[in-house]
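INFO  loader      accepted 1 record
INFO  loader      residues=470
INFO  predictor   begin
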Amino acid sequence: MTEIPGDSRRSRRSLSSRISAGILYVALAGPPLLFGSREPIFVAAWCVILGAGLAFAPTRRLLAGHLLVLAVLAFVALCFGLVLHEQLSAHPWVASFNPIWARASEVLGRQLAPSVSIVRDEPLFALGPSLANTLALVLGLLVGVDADRARRAVRVLAWAGVGYAVYGILALEFDPNEILWREKTAYFGNLTSTFINRNTAAAYFGSCSTVWLVLLLSAVRGSLPRGPIEWKKVPGHLLTNTRKRVIVRFVMLFVCLSAMFMTSSRGGTLVSLMVMVLTFLIYFGRDLPRGKGLVVAAMGCILTSLLVLQILGSNIGDRIDLEGLSDVGRLAAYRSTLGIIADNPWFGTGLGTFAAAFPAYRSNAFYMGGVWDIAHNTPLELASEMGIPLAVVVAGAWIAALVLLFLGLRGRRRSMVAPLAALAVSLIALLHSLVDFSLQIAGYSIVVFALLGLGLSQAVRGTVDEMSST
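INFO  predictor   done
INFO  writer      dumping C-alpha cells
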C-alpha cells in the first residue's frame, strides 16, 4: 500500500516540529553547562544550534498575534541593524565619526581611517550574544504555539535547574575550588555551580525557583476542590490529601532555593524573593478576597520570605549588615557611564566597547586597583554602546512583552503556567540587570529569552481564547 502525499507531508511536518521542539529543550537546559557559555566559541555554537531549530520550526499554526510579536521583533532588529551599520561602516548614513580617531591621528602623526565605533569592527565581533538571544526568542515563540510542548519546555527548564543546583551544592561541599575541570579564580566559599560569577548563578537559581513555584502552585490548585478556595481549610486539605507531584515540586523548589542562598548574592536573592511573592499573588489573585484579604496575603508572603531568608540566607544577611545593599564602586560606575552616554547619545561608542570607553570616564571615587569592564547596569551599558534611541526602543519592546504576558494570565488557569513563568523570570532578569550583568551572560540570557518566547506565544493564544469566549 502506497502512502498518500498528504500523509507524507503531515509526517514530515510532525518530524520537523519535534526536531525544533527538541532543540528548544536543549536551549532551555544546556546554556549554563559550560561555564555559562561566556566564551565566543560557545555563543557561536548556540547560534548554529538555535538557527537549526528555526529551520525546522513550524509556522502553520501562527495567529495574527504571533505575527504582530514577530513584526515588533523585526522592527527592533531593524533598529539594531541600523545602529550596527553606522558603527561599522566607513561611510555612515547619518552618524558622525567618533572624535577619538582625529585625536589619535594627531598624536600618532598619521591619518587613521575614522569610525563611529571607538574600536574598529568590535560591534561585529560582539554581536553573538544578541543574535543568540533573538534566535532563542523566536524559536520559543514558534514552538510555544503548541500548549503541550510549552508546558513540557517549562518543566525541562525547571528540572535542568535542579540538576545544576545539585551539582553546585555537591561541588561546594567536596570540590569548592573548581568549576567542572577548571580551577576557581574567585568567589571561594560561594556556590557558582557551572557559572563563573555567583551573581549570575543567583539570578539563574532564583529564576528556576520561581518556575518551580509556578509549577507547585499549579499542583496545589489542582489538588484542591473545584470552586472558590476556603483558605482556612487549605492546610488541613494539603496535609490529608497531598498528591505526590505537590511533594516533588516542593522539594525541587527547596533544592533550587538552597542553591540560590548558597551563592551569597544580595541582588539576585532579594530580587528573586520579591518576584516570588508577586508570583504567588498573581496566581491566586482571582481567589483572594479584594481589599483587606489581598493586603493580608501580601503581608503573609513577605513575612514568609523574610523568615526563609533568615533561616536559609543568614550568609546574605551578614553581607548586607557588613556591606549594605549597594557599594560605592557601582554608584561611581553608573555616574561614569552616564558621562559616556552624554558624550555619545545617538549611536554610542560601539557594541562591545564599554571596556575600552570606560577608563577615560572612570571616576576618582574608585579604588585604584582592578579593571571595570562591565557597567553592572545593562540598560546603561546598552545606552552607552548603542545610543539612547535604541535603548528606548529595546525598553519599549520589553514593556510591551511584559504587558502581553500579563494580559495572557486572564484565561484558564491551565494556560497560565508558561506566561506566568516567563513573566516572573523576565522580571528577575530585568530587575537584576539594573545592578549587575546577568542578562549579558549567554548561559542565562538564552534561557530567559527562550522562556520569554514560550510565554509570549501562549499569552497570545490565551488572549485570543479569552476574547473568543466573551
